[in-house]
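Re: the multi-chain job from yesterday

Posting the exact lines I submitted so nobody has to dig through the queue logs.
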Amino acid sequence: MADQRWIAAVAAAVTIGGGAFFTVRALPPDPTPVAGFSAPFVFGRFSVPQDNPLTEEAFALGRRLFYDPVLSGSNDRSCATCHIQRLAFTDGLPKAAGLDAEDLDFSSMSLVNLLWGQERFFWDGRALGLEQQALLPIQNPREMAQDLEGLVSELNGSRQYRRMFRQAYGDVSSENIARALATFMRMLISADSKYDRFLRGEAKLSEQEELGRKLFMAHPDTKASLRGGNCIDCHSQFLTSGFRDGLDGFSNNGLDRDADLPAGLMAVTGNPAHKGFFKVPTLRNIAVTAPYMHDGRLRTLEDVMDHYNDGVVVSDTLSPLILEADNAASPPGSFVGLRLTDNEKAAIIAFLRTLTDETFLSDDRFSNPFEGEK
Amino acid sequence: MMLHNELKGALPALLTAALIATAPAHTEAQVREESHGVVLLRGLPTLETAHSIAIVELDPEQANFGELLSEVEQPEMTHPLHHLYYSPAGRLYATGLDPVCSLAEIGLERDATGAPQVTGFDCLDTQGQMVGEDIMWHSSNGKEYMFVTFMGGLGGDDGGTLGVFDPQSNAVVKVIEARPSQVGADQPYIMYPHGISAFQDRMIITSTVHPDLATGVGNALTVIDLNSLEPIQNIVVENEKPLGFPSSPVEVLFARPTMNENIKPAVLVNTMFGFETWKVPYDEASKTFGSPEVLYSGVANNTAVPLEFYGTETELFISHALPGVVKRYDLSKLPELVSTGPDIQAEAGAHHMIFFKSKSGRDLIAIQNNLLNLGNAADNDPTDVDFIAAVNAHTITVHDLATGERLGTVNFREKYNKGVDNLEGLFGSGFVHHH
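And the result, structure tokens for all chains:
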């Protein structure tokens, strides 16, 4: 032991002589892997970037950054301004409020189970990965309007942040800010809703919820007298978010006619076939994330069901999965919609309500760390 | 015939060694675990290895092809777990040959890097039903249940049960037993049930063979009315007897329009000792079954011991343990068997299979080649039988799905001193395609 300490002392002396930047490397951080990690197996495979494993230190740092207004130019808003835990990290507004007192173009998105599903982020999929995504709202002049160099020096001015960065990664840098925020968001796992407990065999759904679950999972087939809501074609069975492969997690669910169709995914791919495609959002905790859709145009889940039932607007890129799904045997003419009964619509909504995870919405690990400090 | 005697000699040793499986659960899970397989491995007596549940990498393009990513052993069990099935809720179950564990739920977990792990298994209370074979989730009067065939049932020379379980709590809801000696002559019976498949309110189970492989062999299907949960009819499927035994119908597939809209409902069934594939037409309107007919004769085509039915979106695959091939047919042409290409040349014992994509996106099929995992006389293994040895390659072969070209082989006996009894995709891969 004594020998080793001696060697370390010499090494430190040498590095001090050799150049200051070496001193940082001489004490590499040795963060602790997150303890007791657990996620349902059915959510499927996931991968975490090799240079940013899930560690306790990164998570604690990411959580603090997420809630810290220092991340904005005027130090008055944090990520949590628009991503509020009890609203499953949405903000309850149709469109998030911009710094210029005007609305942003989009509704803020729920942050949940981001380890799985589509690996592109934002409604139009413009961010490739959470590390890349995390720095965008900070720099966006209408969201947080902070310049990264300025932020790094502000954080460097805090002894606590210097310590937390050192323990998690090493130095304070914009890359490490992104990594820590990404780690915090990866840990936002919701897996204790009634639906999860049902899947694990720990809870029974009511008759109405069970009917809703079946309809959610079924493709209507009038020949086989099978009724269905077809939701699973886009919102996957367990995660209820869009699919991971390629661009499968984006589609046009019939909100606008061609003349009004926003660019959506086309803004990113340049492909006209992607016009009006948006990211299929998770439906977990959907009962607390109103209003709905990328621009918050639908106020309630009843409005959402009315949309899929008889409010679908046809456009060139409307998903064929929606075009084909109809529960009525009579020829639809130009009508597009599910044609479910009121009872069936109510059942699907009852099922959607089983996706609310109170444990997640009130989990202390995800709450504002500054509140405890005050 | 030689085979006959050899098989008979082996019977006591094969005590609970039941044969084949189908996985009838058809669900829409879309999360792919790519190329990981879950396997049930059998410890080999002379090699002093223990039974286990393991996860294996099966993509030949991966550097760790053939390696076990996780393994949980069961040294306390004389006979291994038998067949794996995912429930529609994504829970993993295994039937078992050891009376101490005829049905189990297996725990799976991921660590913080996303790596999958087997955490263990819970043996479930079957109320005495033994030798679990196949599982299927299906509804009866609008409620979903887990149905399990128990080839040994509650015991007896003509035993066998169909267990009905609550899919949430795993509790037994009903044990359906109808032994020929109990029900009387000409009454619908259940005996040595193994294969299982269903369409609407009709379920078909097969009458295969007594688990000791000596006491008796079946030759019929049993139709279960899912409204009453009672057997209502037996249908004999027997013609040639190449081994001199009853035909021993094993896996069964109720071909139905929900698999492909062009399919006219009919039951397909493989006869293990008759070497045939049969078709029994079904009339949906009158709920009646037509006369069984032989669609495929193994004797005429030089194949034996037909085992499993598996489907992809477009094709149906049938494995034949001898000479170790998988034949492929057009799914949309069912119930007729219209070939879509040359046989996939696997190895002796060709049995269970999964479908997945390689790292580079190539469509692959992995085939587990083992009828029963028993030892080899060359190793002084008391469980050896030539007949069985001839259908036990102890391998998983991986092939290009389009061409059948073999891309890799994992020999479990050489690599791990174990046999490989069953293969299922780790959540997702084989799952979407399984019937």
